[in-house]
Design a protein that fits this description.
about 100 residues, mainly alpha, two-stranded antiparallel ribbon, 3 helices, about 45% helix, about 10% strand
Length: about 100
């Protein structure tokens, strides 16, 4: 009996290797979830930048909002607008509704 007796034989290693599950690629759902998490993190960062840039005030009426304002896209997302600092305005609810109603 030698020190190598507890090691598997070559045949056992091949048998075990065949029985091992193959490496799997991430599912589409997992990839979508990861993209969603990344996109949400980006939106959070851009929104925080807009709040800071606006000094926590509505960019139209200058009312103090703290972090309770709304992010308005200058170029609508449906028209290709992105979540970037240059495309976001920080507005109070009333001003945001007025913008979408065409009053401002």
């Amino acid at each position: 009996m030698g020190w190598f007796d507890h090691l598997p034989t070559l045949e056992e290693m091949h048998r075990t290797r065949r029985a091992m599950p193959k490496a799997t690629l991430p599912t589409r759902k997992a990839v979508k979830t990861q993209k969603a998490v990344t996109a949400k993190a980006q939106r959070t960062v851009v929104r925080a930048q807009a709040v800071t840039k606006a000094g926590h005030r509505c960019e139209m009426c200058h009312t103090w909002l703290g972090t309770h304002g709304e992010a308005h896209h200058k170029v609508k997302r449906s028209q290709g607008g992105k979540w970037t600092d240059g495309n976001i305005k920080y507005l109070c609810r009333a001003c945001h509704q007025n913008v979408h109603a065409g009053k401002r």
